Amino acid sequence: MPKQKSDQLYNLIHSLSKGEKRFFKLYSSRLSNSTDKKFILLFDVLEKQKTHNDDLILSKNKVFNPKQFSNLKAHLYFQILKSVRLCNATKQENLTITMLLDYARILYNKCLYKECVKMIDKAKVKVIENDCSVLLLEILDLEKMVIPKTLESGNEARVNLLIANSNHTTISVKNSNVFSNLSLKLSSYYVQTGFSRTEKDLKNVIQFFKSSVPEYQECELSFQEKMYLYNSFIGYYFYTQNFVEGYNYASKLINLFEKQPEMKRHKLEHYIKALNNLLVVQNKLYKYSEFVETLKLLVGLKRNKELILTENINLNLFKAIYIHEINRHFMLGEFTAGTRIVDALEHELNRFIRLLDKPSILLFYYKIACLFIGSSNFKMGVKWLNKIYNAKELKLREDIHSFTRILLLVCHFEMNNELALETLLRSTYRYFLKKGMLSEYERNILDFIHTLFMDPRERNIKVQFINLKINMLKLENEPFEKRAFMYFDIISWLESKIENESIEIVIKRKALLRIG
C-alpha cells in the first residue's frame, strides 16, 4: 500500500464534520478483527491531537508497531475516504451519479444486462439534470456495451437515439474543454503578473485568445458550454482591462443562471465564481447600487438551507464575501470603518489559511494593508505589507509584490522613517532592475522619494508634491500606465498632502461624486 504523508492524514481527519466523524465510527465498527481495530484507535488519537506529531503517538501508544505505522496510516486514510464517500453519496449529486455508474458496471459484470440498462437510465436522468457532459459520455460508452446484449425488435429507436446522443455529447465535451482551457490559461496569466502591463503582453494575449476561440453557434450551446465560453471572455476582458465588455459577459453569465435557477445548486462553485466576477467589474465601474445587490446575493448563499455547503464551498464564499466587503469600503472611501472588520477577518483567515491558495493570501494581505493606509494608520499598513514583502512566492502576483514596495515607501515616508526609507529605496530599485521593467508611474514615485530624502536642497515638499501630481495626471489615461492607479490611488494621496487633509477625506469626497 502506498505511503501517505503524515500531515495528509491529520488534515483529512480534522477536515471532517461531526456527522462524517460519527458515520466513520459506525462504518468502521463493522470491521471486527484486531488489525482493523488499530486504525480506529489511530483515528481517535489523531482526532484529539492539536498539533500533529507521529513520534509522540508512537511513544505514548505501544500498540502501534513503528515498522507498520506508515501502512496503518495509509489504510486509515483510504478507509476515511470510503466512509466520507458513502456518507455524502446521496447529498452530493456528482457522487450520486458516479455511484449509479458503479452500480451499472457491477450489474454488467454480473451479466444482469436488463438491470444494468435500468441503472444507466437512472444515471442519465441525474447527469442531464446536472449538465455534466463528461460523465454523460462515460455513461453512454457503457450503454453502447450493454445494448447489443439486450437487443430486441423495438430497440432500433433506442440505438438511433444513443448514437445521436453520443455525437452531440462528444461535440459538447470538446467545446467545454476548449472554452475551459482558455479560461484556465488566462487565469494563469493573471496569477503571474496581474493586468497586462506592456503592449507586448497585450498583443500576445489578444493573438492567443483570437486564435484559440473556435467557431460556434451560441444558441446551440448547452448550459455548460455557455458557462465556460462566458468565463473565457470574462478572463480575456479582465486581463486586457476592458471592464465594460467584462461587465457585459459577467452579466450574461448571471442571466444564464437566472434562466436555469436549478443550476445554482448543481454548479454552486461556478455560480459563486460568476457572482464574484460580476462584483469585480461593478467595483471597477463604480456601479455601487448594483454592487450592493450582487453582494447580498453572494452573502445569501451562506443562509440558503437548500444548498450543500462543503468545506470547499465555504472557502470560496469566505474569499469572495470578505474581499468584496473590503472593496465596498474602498468604493465609499470608508477606510476607518473598513479596518473594523479586520479582527473578524483575521480570525477566519487563520482558520482558512492552510486551505487558501497563495495568490489569494497575498491579495488579502494587500487589501487589508490598503485599508489601514487609507485610514492613515501607516504602522498597521506596514505590518500587513511586510507579510507580502517577506513572502517567498515572488513569481506569483508580481503586480502585488511591486506595489507592496511602492506602498512601503509611502508608509515609511509618512512615518518619517528616514533610515528604513533609505534601505528600502535601494532594495526597491534593485527589485525593479532585476525584473527588467520599471513603469513611469513607479519611476516617478522612486525619483520623488529619492529627491526628498537624498538631496537636502530639495526640501520644498509642497512644490515636489504638486510637480509629482502633474506628472502622474499625465499618466492616468495612458493605456499601460493606468493599471497602476487601480493598485494605489496616488493622485488622492498627493492631493491629501497638498491640501493638508487626510487621504480618507479626499477619497470619500471623490467616492460620493462617483456613486452619487
**What is the element string, with H for helices and E for strands?**
HHHHHHHHHHHHHHHHHHHHHHHHHH
Low-confidence stretches: 1-5
Radius of gyration: 28 Å
Distance between the termini: 65 Å
Tally of DSSP helical segments: 26
Given the C-alpha coordinates, what overall shape results? globular
Largest sheet: none
Q: Specify the structural class.
A: mainly alpha
The CATH topology of the domain at 357-516 is what? Serine Threonine Protein Phosphatase 5, Tetratricopeptide repeat
Quaternary assembly: single chain
Q: How confident overall, as mean pLDDT?
A: 87
What's the structural blueprint in terms of helices and strands?
Layout: H1 6-15, H2 18-29, H3 34-48, H4 54-60, H5 69-88, H6 93-109, H7 113-130, H8 133-146, H9 156-193, H10 199-212, H11 223-239, H12 243-259, H13 262-266, H14 268-284, H15 288-300, H16 311-332, H17 335-339, H18 342-352, H19 358-374, H20 378-389, H21 398-414, H22 418-435, H23 440-454, H24 461-475, H25 490-499, H26 503-515
Helix pairs in contact: 1-5, 2-5, 3-5, 6-7, 6-8, 7-8, 8-9, 9-11, 11-12, 11-14, 12-14, 14-15, 14-16, 15-16, 16-19, 19-20, 20-21, 21-22, 21-23, 22-23, 23-24, 24-25, 25-26
Structure report:
The structure is a single chain. The protein is mainly alpha-helical and 516 residues long. Among the domains are: 6-88, no CATH class; 93-177; 357-516, Serine Threonine Protein Phosphatase 5, Tetratricopeptide repeat (Alpha Horseshoe), CATH 1.25.40. The protein has 26 helices and no strands. Helix 6 (93-109) runs parallel beside helix 8 (133-146), helix 21 (398-414) runs parallel beside helix 23 (440-454) and helix 24 runs antiparallel to helix 25 (490-499). The N and C termini lie far apart (65 Å). 28% of the residues are buried. Residues 1-5 have low confidence and may be disordered.
